[in-house]
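[recover] target loaded
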């Protein structure tokens, strides 16, 4: 529940701030958002598995974002598009976490249906 509340709060805060980023920062922001979504879904998956720890969530949230943005920064200076690597990795992790959350929800509903019968 904490990751979802944090995401909603962050979206509202971002929209209300009215900050407009320069075009050169869009890749960094996009990779940062992708890493944050990955961490949020990982937190939701851990909560479903009753394995959620706030320290792991918070450290992963900030460190994953810093490492991802750092990779993009380094790649731009080396003339290598490392943002593609980050997109592939985070995309894979996001789909993996979503599939695990979906399985948890479906199994939970299946168990409640069996109890009602």
């Amino acid at each position: 529940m904490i990751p979802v509340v944090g995401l909603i709060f962050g979206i509202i805060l971002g929209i209300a701030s009215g900050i407009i980023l320069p075009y050169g920062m869009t890749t960094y922001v996009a990779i940062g958002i992708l890493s944050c979504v990955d961490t949020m879904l990982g937190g939701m998956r851990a909560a479903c598995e009753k394995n959620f720890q706030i320290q792991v969530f918070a450290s992963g949230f900030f460190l994953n974002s810093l490492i991802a943005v750092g990779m993009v920064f380094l790649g731009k200076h080396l003339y290598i598009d490392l943002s593609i690597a980050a997109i592939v990795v985070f995309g894979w992790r996001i789909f993996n976490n979503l599939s695990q959350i979906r399985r948890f929800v479906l199994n939970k509903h299946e168990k409640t249906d069996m109890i009602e019968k």
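[recover] notes: The mean pLDDT is 87.
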